[in-house]
Design a protein that fits this description.
It is built from 6 helices and 3 strands; from the N terminus they run ααααααβββ. It is extended. The termini are far apart. It has helices at 2-13, 33-36, 53-61, 67-75, 78-89, 100-104, and strands at 109-112, 115-118, 121-122.
Length: 128
């Protein structure tokens, strides 16, 4: 199955002119952020409290915009404001008008500090 997928990628990518460049893991901070994130531990081997929310905060901090700009624009985007409200309070059983793309991924959406996330990806308002 994986071989067939790789072959499809090869056929698709054959139409492009590109160069593959290796980036050392220590310089590729975004790749595999959860698997590369060190967990603090005590000497007896027990893990200290660790919050995955820190990863979300780190994602916002590396954006080319300020976190305050992201929050401001999210709170002034009527569509994202509705999505944010449904994500916090719970989604209805049927897709709300105009929110089908978000409704399909409703179980993958989360919010933190008035910002929306789809998995580890930040949802950027259209105005930005």
């Amino acid at each position: 199955m994986a071989a067939a997928r790789i072959q499809r990628w090869a056929v698709f990518l054959a139409g492009y002119n590109f160069t593959i460049v290796h980036i050392k893991g220590e310089h590729n901070t975004i790749a595999d952020s959860l698997s590369r994130l060190p967990l603090p531990s005590s000497e007896d081997g027990d893990f200290d409290d660790f919050s995955v929310e820190q990863v979300s905060i780190n994602q916002i901090e590396i954006l080319p915009i300020l976190p305050e700009q992201l929050r401001f624009e999210t709170m002034h985007d009527t569509e994202l404001l509705r999505v944010l409200d449904f994500t916090r309070r719970g989604w209805p059983t049927n897709a709300p008008s105009g929110l089908l793309p978000y409704f399909v991924h409703r179980t993958e959406l989360s919010c933190d500090s008035d910002s929306l996330f789809w998995g580890l990806r930040v949802i950027i308002p259209t105005k930005l």
